[in-house]
C-alpha cells in the first residue's frame, strides 16, 4: 500500500497576525490558505476538510477571503481524475466554517466522518453563530438523519478508529473539544493531518512567540478549550508524528518531538512528496529563506 497525501488550497484569508498566534504583531495583516488534504492510493479516495462555503462569510469578522475557481474542490479533484461522487469518505478535523463549508457539494452517498463531540459543539452555540454557521450545522444534522451519510467518531484519546487500512482518526482536542487528527501510515512514519492545533509553525513551534521554556509551543489565539489543552495537543502531535500537516501552513518534518524541516511549494502541487523526508528543506535553510 502506498498512500499519498496532496495538500490542496481551497481559498485564502487576509487577517490580523495576532488572530493566529496570541499577541503576535497586532495590526499586521497576513494571508493564510484554507487547506484540504486528498489521500489517494488506498482502497478509496478520502478528502480531509472542505474549505469555506462562501468567502463573504468572513466579512462579519472584519476579514477578507477569496476563493477563485482554481481553489475549488471540483478543480482539485479534476486534476487527479476524480469527481465528487468518486470519494467514499470526507473527514472533518472540526466543524468551523473554514473547514466544513464544502460538505454540501458531496452526495449523501459519500460518508462524512466527524467526532460526535464536535457535532455537539457545532449545535451548542459554544462559539456563537459565526464559527459554526447555521447552514453548515444544518447540513451535518441532515446527514445525521440520512442512512450512512454521517459517521460519528467517539475517539476520546484512549483509542483510534480506522477509516480505511492505513488511515485512522485520533482525538486531538486543543482547538475545539471535538477536534480530531487524521493519521496516515507511510513508509517513513505517521503523517498527521492535525487541523488547527497549529496555525503558524514558525511562531508557534520553531521560534515560539513569547515562550522561553525549552521546546514549549506557543498557543493560538483561537480556541474553545484551555491553553493547557492546546499545548498538550501540540506536544502529543509532535511526539507521535513524522510529518505534521496543519490546516493553514506548510507541512513540516518532525524528529525527536521537534520540527526539523519544511516542505516548500506543497500546496496544490501533485508533484509534492509530502510523505518523503528527503523532499523537505532542513530547518536552518528554511528559516534562512524566510519561511
From TrEMBL:
Keywords: Hydrolase, Metal-binding, Zinc. InterPro entries: MBL_superfamily_lactonases, Metallo-B-lactamas, RibonucZ/Hydroxyglut_hydro. Residues 33-248 form the Metallo-beta-lactamase domain. It holds the Pfam family Lactamase_B. Belongs to the metallo-beta-lactamase superfamily. This is N-acyl homoserine lactonase family protein.
Amino acid at each position: 500500500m502506498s498512500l499519498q497525501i496532496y495538500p490542496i488550497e481551497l481559498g485564502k484569508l487576509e487577517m490580523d497576525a495576532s488572530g493566529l498566534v496570541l499577541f503576535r504583531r497586532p495590526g499586521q495583516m497576513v494571508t493564510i490558505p484554507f487547506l484540504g488534504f486528498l489521500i489517494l492510493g488506498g482502497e478509496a479516495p478520502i478528502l480531509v476538510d472542505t474549505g469555506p462555503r462562501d468567502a463573504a462569510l468572513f466579512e462579519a469578522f472584519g476579514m477578507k477571503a477569496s476563493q477563485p475557481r482554481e481553489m475549488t474542490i471540483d478543480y482539485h479533484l479534476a486534476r487527479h481524475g476524480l469527481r465528487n461522487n468518486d470519494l467514499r469518505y470526507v473527514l472533518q478535523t472540526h466543524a468551523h466554517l473554514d473547514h466544513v463549508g464544502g460538505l454540501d457539494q458531496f452526495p449523501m452517498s459519500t460518508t462524512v466522518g466527524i467526532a460526535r463531540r464536535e457535532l455537539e459543539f457545532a449545535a451548542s452555540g459554544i462559539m456563537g453563530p459565526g464559527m459554526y454557521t447555521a447552514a453548515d450545522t444544518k447540513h451535518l444534522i441532515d446527514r445525521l438523519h440520512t442512512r450512512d451519510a454521517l459517521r460519528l467518531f467517539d475517539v476520546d484519546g484512549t483509542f483510534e478508529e480506522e477509516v480505511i487500512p492505513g488511515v485512522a482518526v485520533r482525538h486531538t482536542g486543543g482547538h475545539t473539544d471535538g477536534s480530531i487528527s487524521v493519521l496516515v501510515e507511510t513508509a517513513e512514519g505517521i503523517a498527521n493531518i492535525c487541523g488547527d492545533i497549529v496555525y503558524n509553525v514558525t511562531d508557534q513551534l520553531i521560534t515560539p512567540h513569547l515562550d522561553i521554556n525549552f521546546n514549549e509551543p506557543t498557543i493560538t489565539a483561537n480556541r474553545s478549550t484551555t491553553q493547557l489543552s492546546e499545548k498538550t495537543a501540540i506536544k502529543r502531535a509532535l511526539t507521535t508524528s513524522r510529518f505534521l500537516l496543519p490546516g493553514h501552513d506548510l507541512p513540516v518534518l518532525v524528529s525527536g518531538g521537534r520540527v526539523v524541516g519544511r516542505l516548500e511549494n506543497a500546496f496544490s502541487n501533485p508533484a509534492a512528496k509530502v510523505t518523503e523526508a528527503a523532499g523537505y528543506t532542513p530547518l536552518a535553510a528554511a528559516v534562512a529563506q524566510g519561511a
